[in-house]
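Supplementary Methods, section 5.1.

A reviewer requested that the exact input to the structure prediction be made available. We therefore reproduce it here, unchanged from the version used in the analyses.
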Amino acid sequence: MYKIIVRPLLFCFDPERIHHFTFSLIRFLNKIPLVPSLFKSLYLVKDKSLERQLFGLTFKNPVGLAAGFDKDAKLFNELGNLGFGFIEIGTLTPKPQPGNPKKRLFRLKEDNAIINRMGFNNGGVEEAVTRLKKNKGVLIGGNIGKNKVTPNENATDDYVYCFNALYDYVDYFVVNVSSPNTPNLRALQDKEPLTKLLQELKLQNAKKSNPKPILLKIAPDLTDEQLLDIIDIVKVTKIDGVIATNTTISREGLQSDNKTEVGGLSGKPLTQRSTDVIRFLSEKSQKAFPIIGVGGIHTAQDALDKLEAGADLVQLYTGFIYEGPKLIKDINKALLNK
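The structure derived from this sequence is encoded token-by-token as follows.
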């Protein structure tokens, strides 16, 4: 029904406008008595064997929603009714910022992909905290970044601010230095600045009575040498894991007319590259740390491939938009049938 009726209708409209409309619709529907239970009955797969123990947390199933969809923590409770095992909110910054000028979100229908250059548009971390206080039991990851106007030499201050603001309201943290849509942000992936940033966050974490897992989200465009650096950084800083991968700046093999738009590419064209990065990190590190696999998951087999390559959990974003919530159920069913 989603791919035959709902998606063609949604795809008739501007992607960013329809995103906000869909949020409003899902929120409205979930206020109707019995509708949340209906969503759960349609999409939630409950089975003890789907549970995953990772970072000291219990994930009800290994299929999560990637950051970028619910940036401002506006819909995590309702999205949890669609069968996700966990929801990652953000990327959040200390101060509110509008992001890049519109139009900044593009569908590449022929490629089952999306290009975005949103630029960390969000209402600021404090506003998100207000909503997170109303969490009804959803396992939440907090994806944190820096404000556009903050120079890289002061970036650590922004990450620390977000870390401390979110600490009581999320279950794990994700350090985002890999978005291509904030000027110079990816320079923070270089070994020296990244090590310093993660060490400071680990120091802040150690001051807490109950330290939270800290993960690093990396770009798919890193070379093998840079990926080896990532493995070394994880070892040195003792962070808890890696999310592989963010969007790509590559445009190789695209068919859509709007393929030259500037921004990060997500979706089906990223499927193989993200799986390759997962396998490289897993094999070269000898499975030294957990990996959350994300990028181009449009079928249950795509998810299985990432798990077999070394991922411990997976996340959806563009595949969720193109395939609908049934994809979550399909992946969990496939895992049960293995």
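The mean pLDDT is 97. These observations are discussed further in the main text.
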